[in-house]
């Protein structure tokens, strides 16, 4: 390698190192791009109805913030009420269980009493863990503030991108060589179409899961059914892990009424998730985004390992965009063009005048047929 090649290699390594150090910022920028693409799609719908661009963008942003405020208005108040109820009903349940446990010890033979654990000692042993959990409350608050700042950053970036998306797109395209810019612009069109399709499909699946959860919980008589249904639909945006997380608050609230309700909620959510994973999502995403289930799961494991919870949340849109770039750039523009040109391939294949196989070394040809290509090559050289 000469000096220029060494300098190029060092520049690539340094660029990859810098990108890895700012990976969280890049993920936030990508989240802003996804959100801006979704709102831009809504703004274009309003523009198709004759509305000007400025008013269409403002109306899209207002609808988005109205949905966010409505989500928290529906979710937070019922959960606060149920949390207060849990704070005094859980100690009552523990006290009742302790009395039942002590009564059971009186009916056990004296030989088995030393082998029965003491509930009070277990509570004392768990006290350090409880204190540690309470002591980490400051870290939880600071983490919440950091998450709030990140959300604000994403919203600000979304507003900037939504105000003039074409300008930022032209800047990105100019980062590539001039002969490849038209190709990059076409790839960006495909990415935009696929992201819009993913957003539409995810919203449809989210609405169906939320509605089914609300109807099932209402039929079981579980409190805060609307809030739990909305939460189940929202967490459905996180495949595999989100549906599991949505079961926990629903079972906790159902357990306040009766144990059988908690079991019924578990069965209900299992049925809903089976229907969602086997029927709803495949049918919806087949018309919007074509992703293999194994690819989806592998991408989630990859992004959550390297980028944490934010990577898990953005795993599907990242996979959609990465698939398009790999397919268009690596496969079509590099791998499909790798090898001898068509003219060289035509020179390597010599058609036999006898009308037999095109391959001069085919086993069906005679010895004279095998020598004929060599004689033709000699005549061409003369």
UniProtKB/TrEMBL annotation:
Record keyword Nucleus present: no
Subcellular location: Membrane
Annotated segments matching region Disordered: 350-382
TM region(s), chain numbering: 6-35, 55-76, 147-164, 197-215, 292-316
Pfam families: AI-2E_transport
Record field: compositional bias (Basic and acidic residues): 367-382
Main location: membrane
InterPro entries (alphabetical): AI-2E-like (IPR002549)
4Fe-4S keyword on record: no
Membrane topology per record: Multi-pass membrane protein
Keyword annotations: Membrane, Transmembrane, Transmembrane helix
Family recorded in the similarity comment: Belongs to the autoinducer-2 exporter (AI-2E) (TC 2.A.86) family.
PANTHER family linked to this entry: TRANSMEMBRANE PROTEIN (PTHR21716), TRANSPORT PROTEIN YDBI-RELATED (PTHR21716:SF62)
Protein name: AI-2E family transporter
Species this protein is from: Calothrix parietina FACHB-288
